[in-house]
Amino acid sequence: MLYDRQFTAWAVRTALSAVPGLQVHSVPEDGGESAPRHLDVLVTDHRPRDPAIGTRAAQILLMSPTDPPPDLDMAASGFAGHLSERSTAAELAAAIRDAAARDAPERPDEGGFTLSARERQVLRLIADGYTHDQTARRLGLSRHTVNTYVKRAKGKLGLGNKADLARAVLTAGW
Fold first, then answer.
1. I need a labelling partner for 142 at 20 to 30 A (CA). Which of 6, 10, 25, 85 fits?
2. Residue 140 per-residue DSSP state
3. Would you say 46 and 23 are in contact if contact means Cβ atoms under 8 Å apart?
4. Around Cβ 125, how many Cβ atoms within 10 Å?
5. What is the pTM of this model?
6. Alpha-carbon gap, residue 43 to 141, rounded angstroms
7. Are 172 and 109 in contact (CB under 8 A)?
8. What burial class does residue 6 get, using C-beta atoms within 10 Å of its C-beta: 0-12 exposed, 13-18 middle, 19+ buried?
9. CB-count burial class (<10 Å; 0-12, 13-18, 19+) for 5
10. CA-to-CA distance for 130 and 80, rounded, in angstroms?
C-alpha cells in the first residue's frame, strides 16, 4: 500500500489485515529499506513518484474517493484497475485477488524491452536466488510455466544465462 492520505492508508490496512490469506505492507514513498521487494498487488491513491516502486508490483490498483479522472488512461498509466474508497473490505479483497491472478499486459520498459509484469516478477525472484521450483511454488505456478517465462525473457532481452538475467534485473531495478 502506497498512500498520501495516512488515515485512508490506516483504514485500508486495518480492513485488509482481517482478510485471511492477504499479507498487507505499507510502502514508503521513497521505496525505503522497509518496503518489500516483491508485491503481487500495490494499492495506491496516486501514481508512484518513484518508478522503481511500481516495478516491484505485478499489478497496481488505484483507489480514490471518486471515479478516476476522465483524462486518466488506466492501462497507459500502469493501473490494472480502479476502486472507490467506498468499497467494502470484501470488494477490495476480491479486486486484489483478481488483480493478482491475472498477468498484466505487456508494456515497454526503459530499455525498449517488452516484458510482462509476470515475467518481471519471475525474473526478480530468480535474481534474488530462488530456484525455478521455489519461484513456481511462491507464485502458484508450475515449474514449466516458470521455465517458459524465463525462456521468453531471455529471448526478448537477448541474454543467454541466469547471471546475465540477474544482472539485467538489478540494472533495470525490476
1. 25
2. T
3. no
4. 21
5. 0.52
6. 23
7. yes
8. exposed
9. middle
10. 27
